[in-house]
């Protein structure tokens, strides 16, 4: 059995810590067994390792999340990257074709699909393994995992089994998306299950479907045609058209941590970052990524979250509504994690004359490097405030350490590698400070040194 973890979305319900670059699964607010903070994706990856599944797993994601995944899980993780976001069916199809044509998996291979951010016990992944037996013993097209509901929830979709079912493997009758309370109560009386978003199929099922649609089943060919695929969900394109679906029930702990009120219930601490819980504070949380303190006084059932992207003050139960308001905010992300470290935007100014100035604090981990790149709309000044390493500007390699200042003119190729953990204050000045003005030549340092000699 092979596993594909689906990592997507922007997690706007966890603003201001989550944004288009740092989705909810990357927020380090959960506590591990050593008392250290970890993210949802780190937690799930650790659980896969405990269940001997990590070597069978790959991650399917968009380009904007690759650096974050590498930063948090390491460089040995197999990542299938969408050239552009086109919803869940194209992403799952690309992952399936990768397993088929690149990793040469058999058409009889069972492939399990999991969201990258479930909050579950370790034993949940033993139930995931049972999906293989369910498919092989029933010859169903799809096998799902449903959660035995503990209350009539309006937040989750439901899997409704056929009433004649009895036994471990249930035949699915139909699905119901996020019902009202009364309908949810009726569904529970029919032994309906919460839909966990975990399902499996045999590889042949998807490969044949792509062939029937006239789509390529070779990975590189599908990559080239990816922009032509319809933006459809897997539910719409596959699940709703399937004739034979079975489900396994799971009665252990399961939770969707997609909103502040659910996430804070599982956090390792009521306070992360600088802050003071004062007199009269009850059932409230501070999550603070800023370098200034937050003080709470006489407040109950509150969540206060602060990051360079903004500040949220909300009643806990009201917090899921934040998505409605975040859609009005179109500012660039102010903090990102990358494969080499992280950066935080300190200041941004656009002058009436059209010139822009952006100031960043950049952290580069020891042994890591920025890509060999060039810009045609901006110049940069680096001030090294911590650590040492080497850098290349204008094909010249030099050593660099704290206190040094480097000027990188417009149109000049440049790169830097940290020998120890480094921090840099970078000031960008130019006519347009945009991602499209970063022309990356290579990220491999040996290649960078070779190119610099040419």
From TrEMBL:
CDD domains: cupin_PMI_typeII_C. Pfam families: MannoseP_isomer (PF01050), NTP_transferase (PF00483). Residues 4-266 form the Nucleotidyl transferase domain. It comes from the Bacteria. Gene3D superfamilies: Jelly Rolls, Spore Coat Polysaccharide Biosynthesis Protein SpsA, Chain A. Residues 338-441 form the Mannose-6-phosphate isomerase type II C-terminal domain. One of its GO terms (molecular function) is mannose-1-phosphate guanylyltransferase (GTP) activity. This is Cupin domain-containing protein. It comes from Aquibacillus halophilus.
């Amino acid at each position: 059995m092979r596993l594909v973890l689906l990592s997507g979305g922007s997690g706007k319900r966890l603003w201001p810590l989550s944004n288009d670059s740092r989705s909810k699964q990357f927020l380090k607010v959960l506590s591990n067994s050593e008392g250290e903070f970890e993210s949802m994706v780190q937690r799930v990856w650790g659980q896969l390792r405990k269940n001997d599944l990590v070597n069978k797993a790959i991650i399917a994601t968009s380009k904007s999340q690759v650096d974050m995944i590498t930063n948090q899980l390491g460089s040995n993780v197999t990542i299938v990257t969408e050239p552009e976001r086109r919803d869940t069916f194209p992403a799952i199809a690309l992952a399936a074709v990768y397993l088929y044509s690149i990793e040469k998996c058999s058409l009889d291979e069972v492939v399990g699909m999991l969201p990258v951010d479930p909050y579950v016990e370790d034993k949940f992944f033993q139930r995931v393994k049972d999906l293989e037996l369910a498919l092989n013993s029933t010859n169903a097209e799809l096998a799902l995992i449903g959660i035995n509901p503990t209350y009539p929830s309006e937040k989750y979709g439901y899997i409704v089994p056929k009433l004649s079912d009895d036994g471990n493997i249930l035949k699915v009758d139909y699905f119901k998306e996020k019902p009202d309370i009364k309908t949810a109560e009726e569904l529970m009386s029919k032994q309906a299950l919460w839909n966990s978003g975990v399902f499996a199929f045999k590889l042949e099922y998807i490969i044949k479907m792509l062939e029937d649609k006239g789509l390529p089943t070779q990975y590189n060919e599908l990559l080239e045609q990816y922009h032509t695929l319809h933006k459809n969900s897997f539910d719409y394109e596959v699940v709703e058209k399937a004739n034979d679906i079975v489900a396994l029930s799971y009665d252990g702990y399961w939770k969707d941590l997609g909103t502040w009120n659910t996430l804070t219930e599982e956090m390792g601490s009521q306070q992360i970052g600088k802050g003071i819980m004062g007199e009269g504070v009850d059932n409230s949380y501070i999550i603070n990524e800023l370098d200034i303190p937050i003080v709470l006084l006489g407040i109950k059932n509150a969540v206060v979250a602060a990051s360079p992207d903004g500040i949220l003050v909300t009643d806990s139960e009201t917090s899921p509504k934040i998505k409605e308001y975040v859609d009005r905010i179109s500012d660039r992300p102010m903090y990102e994690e990358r494969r080499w470290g992280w950066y935080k935007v300190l200041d941004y100014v656009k002058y009436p004359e059209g010139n822009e100035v952006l100031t960043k604090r950049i952290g580069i981990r020891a042994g890591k490097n920025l890509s060999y790149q060039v810009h045609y709309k901006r110049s940069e000044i680096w001030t090294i405030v911590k650590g040492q390493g080497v850098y290349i500007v204008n094909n010249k390699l030099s050593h660099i350490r704290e206190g040094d200042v480097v000027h990188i003119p417009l149109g000049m190729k440049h790169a830097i590698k940290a020998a120890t953990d480094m921090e840099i204050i970078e000031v960008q000045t130019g006519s347009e400070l945009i991602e499209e003005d970063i022309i990356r030549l290579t990220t491999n340092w040996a290649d960078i040194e070779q190119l610099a000699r040419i």
